[in-house]
Write a structure and sequence with these properties.
The protein is of the alpha/beta class. It has a single domain (about 15-265), classed as TIM Barrel. The chain is built from ten helices and 13 strands. It is globular and about 45 Å long. The two termini are about 25 Å apart.
């Protein structure tokens, strides 16, 4: 079986580089800059791409500068148990973004509510089911089956290499958790170490990504955190990653449009049909 992808990739076999998904961390209606997962320290971003930290401006900045419409949005308030910031999400969609949303899914009910969200008729592009939020591994299969494996992505959340799993989880190692998610029906997987985010130290999860790719070659594999430049993107590609989550290097200008835009320009792609577009 061929590798599943977030979107069609023209000439995938000829591409040697990972594709970039810009990251938007939302906090109190502003886009903030990640600092090693210490969310109390996150402050509104300052960026070459936009004049403000408002979600619309940041999303539009990513799209105009890089032609990248698929945007990973982490609603940090929702992740801590508050309501989803629907207004900010709507602004990202209004700017032209397709949202891959992490909103602190901790139950099937929450997953269904997030999945059902729409703005002006545009649904979410993908729903993130994150390890740090999910209350128990037994929910994985139920969520993947109910929402559909093509619409959900499991995020293997780490902190300095250790899984950010609740005490109710019965699995210990990153690869055991990845295996449980794959067995439950997930076909898209994020490997993200929060300690790397915004620290400009490179991605420390390359070995895990490489082993995930070796064991499950059919997965669509995403990673991120600590990406500094084109060389870091190449390292992720070498481990088998298909996509990289990036924020700071885009805002600071360390990655250019030429670095991140391989294959088709997302801004020029035709919209997907049915419920799979935003």
């Amino acid at each position: 079986m061929g590798r599943l992808t977030l979107w069609p990739q023209s000439g995938r076999a000829t591409l040697a580089r990972v594709k970039v998904i810009p990251v938007i961390d939302l906090k109190r209606g502003r886009v903030v800059r990640g600092v090693g997962g210490a969310r109390s320290r996150y402050q509104p971003i300052r960026s070459r791409l936009c004049r403000t930290a408002l979600p619309f401006d940041v999303a539009r900045g990513f799209i105009r500068a890089f032609g990248l419409r698929e945007l990973y949005v982490a609603d940090l308030d929702a992740i801590t148990g508050e309501a989803v910031d629907e207004r900010s999400l709507g602004e990202v969609v209004r700017a032209g973004g397709r949202v891959l949303l992490d909103a602190g899914i901790d139950s099937l009910e929450r997953a269904q509510q997030v999945h059902a969200w729409q703005h002006a008729g545009s649904p979410l592009f993908r729903v993130i089911v994150a390890l740090e939020s999910l209350s128990h591994s037994s929910l994985l299969e139920e969520i993947a089956t109910t929402l559909g494996s093509e619409r959900v992505i499991f995020s293997l959340d780490l902190k300095k290499g250790r899984p950010l799993a609740r005490a109710t989880w019965d699995l210990a190692s990153p690869l055991e958790i990845a295996e449980r998610a794959v067995s439950a029906g997930f076909r898209q997987l994020i490997v993200l170490d929060l300690a790397d985010v915004g620290m400009d130290g490179g991605n420390q999860s390359l070995a895990i990504c490489e082993e995930v790719r070796r064991r499950w070659p059919e997965l669509s594999l995403i990673s991120g955190g600590g990406v500094r430049d084109r060389a870091d993107l190449q390292r992720l590609a070498a481990t088998g990653c298909d996509y990289a989550l990036v924020a700071s290097a885009l805002h600071d200008g360390r990655l250019t449009r030429a670095d991140v835009c391989v294959g088709e320009d997302q801004s020029e792609r035709p919209q997907a049909t049915g419920s799979d577009h935003a």
